[in-house]
Amino acid sequence: AHLDRIAAVDERLNAFITVTADTALATAADVDRRRAAGEELPPLAGVPVTHKDLISTSGIPTTAGSRMLADFVPPYDATVYRKTQAAHMPLLGKTNLDEFAMGSTTEHSAFGRTLNPWDPARVPGGSSGGAAASVAAYEAPLSVGTDTGGSVRQPAAFTGTVGVKPTYGSVSRYGVIAMTSSMDQVGPVARTVADAAALHGVLAGHDRFDSTSLPEAVPDFTAAARAGAAAGLAGKRLGVIKQLQGEGWEPGVLAAFRAALDAAEAQGAEIVEVDLPALSYALDAYYLIMPSEVSSNLARYDGMRYGLRAEPESGTVTAETVMAATRAAGFGAEVKRRIILGTYALSAGYYDAYYGSAQKVRTLVQRDFARAFEAADALVSPTAPTTAYEFGAESADDPMALYLGDIATIPANLAGIPGMSLPAGLADGLPVGFQLLAPAREDARLYEVGAGLE
Ligand code: GLN
């Protein structure tokens, strides 16, 4: 049924870069066979899933949304893909994204833009726009995305789905094409909090192939969601972040957010306001640390080892001219912009002023969160200041406007804490996201509170 739905709508929607019908049907048939033989299978066996095309799948193209990797077929699996396979979840395909996960609209993909199922004149958000659109359009029940500065939560907000960024280190990054290694996290996109909990449980867990992987056992997210749905929000303290509202925030977004808070209060939640002054500098810190790591991580695309190789149009063919020609042809404008910014921020003479200062801000953000969580069980804000942008409106011409739209999501990545976006009604007919943040390693709390809010 999902493959039929993809065939019916995806030519227009373009949520997928690759559809893997044969792989999906083979897994589904295998599940049927095992069930018929009386085998006990894990809970999501037979439930289809998609992976963002940043996640390596052996034998299946993995492009990162870039010309650089347009013909790349990885020789190995990312741990998170291995896990959905071990859970017997049929892979429907690989979803569209902004090139190397850099962007908030999925317009920066070498494979065309993805439409928002709610309004084809608008973006689905990004960079996991294909993942969110595929779930919102009923092409897939579950999707795996990545979130470095909001790339799961913001598209979830723009498409009326649930998206989660786990605690840094709690889901393996092995085989996930690197953007900003100190912030990248894989997370689930789903239509309900309980669905997200089930997929999150499959993805999480220690991985010896990821040096930043946490050793803790995986909590039972599904049990947390059930407990939250049963108990409601009575006695839960929700901390409204003072810095994430007010000027520059769409009135319709704030109204929907307020209405959700009122509903929580009516259920017995206690609403408090929390002050996180360092958030005023969080965006600036992110847009220095992120490009710095990008410039370093993307140095590997040199035209020599794998991926695109372009020869210089004229002059001598040397390692350097091949590298220059390859990177000029293979990367899009936004990726180039970030490589240049990052190279500058890391250069001798500027390192302390930019990268060093940004790392200090990162510590201040972490301290602000630690203090705020003394006053609240979960922190809340709208996921983004606006609803889904119209195509072309803010995007290509004005990168700054888009960077500002990440204000609510990037603090969690700087601090490594988990966050969830869940639907909070509509503003002018478009979905609004409600963001929940919890302390590091307390991802289960997101499901407990989220299910209570839902
Ligand atoms: N929009 C943010 C950026 O462009 C987030 C990207 C991400 O989370 N991968 O950097």
From TrEMBL:
Its EC number is 6.3.5.7. It catalyses: L-glutamyl-tRNA(Gln) + L-glutamine + ATP + H2O = L-glutaminyl-tRNA(Gln) + L-glutamate + ADP + phosphate + H(+). The active site is at K52 (charge relay system), S127 (charge relay system), S151 (acyl-ester intermediate). InterPro entries: Amidase, Amidase_CS, Amidase_dom, AS_sf, GatA. Residues 1-446 form the Amidase domain. Keywords: ATP-binding, Ligase, Nucleotide-binding, Protein biosynthesis, Transferase. SUPFAM superfamilies: Amidase signature (AS) enzymes. It comes from the Bacteria. One of its GO terms (molecular function) is transferase activity. Allows the formation of correctly charged Gln-tRNA(Gln) through the transamidation of misacylated Glu-tRNA(Gln) in organisms which lack glutaminyl-tRNA synthetase. The reaction takes place in the presence of glutamine and ATP through an activated gamma-phospho-Glu-tRNA(Gln). Heterotrimer of A, B and C subunits. HAMAP family: GatA. Belongs to the amidase family. GatA subfamily. This is Glutamyl-tRNA(Gln) amidotransferase subunit A. The gene is gatA.
